[in-house]
Amino acid sequence: QVHLVESGGGLVQAGGSLRLSCAASGSRFSINAMFWYRQAPGKQRELVAAISSGGSTNYADSVQGRFTISRDTAENTVYLQMNSLKSEDTAVYLCNALVVPDHSMVSYAYWGQGTQVTVSS
What we know:
The chain is elongated. The protein is mostly beta strands. Strands 2, 4, 5, 6, 9, 10 and 11 form a 7-stranded mixed beta sheet that branches. It is built from no helices and 11 strands. The chain has strands spanning about 5, 10-15, 20-25, 30-40, 45-50, 55-60, 65-70, 75-80, 90-100, 110, 115-120.
C-alpha cells in the first residue's frame, strides 16, 4: 500500500510562485511515474505535469514554460514548481502515482488528498 501526502498549496497573488510537494510512503513497491492533476469547480480534471521513473517530463500546454515537475533522488517525492501564476491556475491540485508492487506484474494508481491553490488577481 502507498500513501501520498501533498503539501505547499495556499493563497498567492498573480505573478507569484508556489512549490507543491508530494511524498510517497510505503514499502515493497516501485513507482513508474508520478503526475500532478488539477481540478477547478465546474471544470474537467486536467493533467498538469507528469514525470517518469527515468526523468522524462510532460506538461499541459496551459502551464508550459511556467511549471516544472521534478523528483528527488530516492524517487519517493515529486515536486511542482509553479511560477508566474495566473488566476486560471486556481484549483485543487492532486498527486497521482503509478505503482508496481515488488514481484508483481500489475500496476496500481494511488491518489493524494489534494491541496488547494488559489491565485488572486
